[in-house]
């Protein structure tokens, strides 16, 4: 593994490659090649429901089937595999996956471990073998999740985890900001909120990956804990690490603690960049 493998940053649900724009310059300034990519169903691959682009109809927020309802974990992994293959040019890369991008990174690392020099989970879902990421939202460790109360509609019916980004409900928007950007400058947090897309494909959260010693277990792994996270709390993050270490005791994960909320790429981009580049 090259100590200077290219860094590939993958955002979580509702965000896009834009969220790394304050991190990448710090990484590049440190002499490391870096690029941020869009996850399936997001960024340039996003498709917005009609209620979010036309006249606002609150009644349709919870009922309109998502235009990304057909996006599955398989699709997201296929896209990320093509991205890291192109970016690495045949050499393995270090992937930093945030939040719901975690299961996507896990699938890619399991299927093509030769492409991943280092799998880095930034306050990300890191499901155990054969367990969907969605299952962890019902665990005791997820009891303090501040995102769940913001979701609209039945994910099983609309095919997405949906935020009502068109609402003028000030209290809702304040809670959204607190869930994602609790320690981010309010002006920057408002700008970021304006760039979010409403739907995160439920299929990504429902997919599972069978983990093996020669696959995911053979890849170098680090978990970056966000100690102030209100979306994926520290207790749930600790559970992910504990389950991984129990499954692969001969290859325990490294853990790095960040004193940040769910979005350190906006609150402490310089510190996040330093932490990532120090991983090698």
Written account of the structure:
The chain is of the alpha/beta class. Helices cover 35% and strands 14% of the residues. It has one domain (7-277): Rossmann fold, CATH 3.40.50. It has helices spanning 24-29, 50-53, 58-61, 73-88, 102-111, 155-158, 170-181, 186-195, 202-206, 234-247, 264-267, 269-277; strands spanning 7-10, 34-37, 93-98, 116-122, 160-162, 199-201, 221-226, 254-258. The strands form two sheets. A six-stranded parallel beta sheet has the order 2-1-3-4-7-8, sandwiched between helices. A two-stranded antiparallel sheet has the order 5-6. Strand 7, helix 10 (234-247) and strand 8 form a beta-alpha-beta unit. Helix 4 (73-88) packs across helix 5 (102-111). The longest helix is centred in the first third of the chain and has 16 residues, at 73-88. The chain is globular, with a radius of gyration of 18 Å. The mean pLDDT is 96.
Strands, helices and their partners?
Elements (H helix, E strand, L loop, with lengths): L6 E4 L13 H6 L4 E4 L12 H4 L4 H4 L11 H16 L4 E6 L3 H10 L4 E7 L32 H4 L1 E3 L7 H12 L4 H10 L3 E3 H5 L14 E6 L7 H14 L6 E5 L5 H4 L1 H9 L3
